[in-house]
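Before going further, learn to read the protein records used in this course. The integers have meaning only within a learned vocabulary of local backbone shapes. The record below shows the convention in full.
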Amino acid sequence: MREALAAHLSAATPREEQAADSAFHQSICEATRNPQIALLSRDLLTRISLGFPVEPWGKGERSHFHRAGEGHTALYEAIAAGEPERAEEIAREHFMISAEMIRDVLARVRAAGS
């Protein structure tokens, strides 16, 4: 998890960000030693990614990347400290980032079509 977190925080391009983000999430799934969690995570990622190799949110979405980095750091710290309740709360907040990005993109598309 530590290596994947460091890669995410130092990513310089959207493709590096996406790869490091996936690696971080995968490292958490592996740490659970629960194959059902891994399957659920893969299913959610497939649904959220919409089939794009890199999230198509645009260059202006660096704030989302920054928030993801903060969430990853906090999540890693909670897991490393053995604080599952805190990790759960952080994970719930973290998963809202993708939902917010999708809503923002849909709002921009609607506004452009008006």
Remarks:
- The first helix runs from residue 2 to 9.
- The mean pLDDT is 82.
- The two ends are 44 Å apart (CA to CA).
- DSSP finds five helices and no strands in the chain.
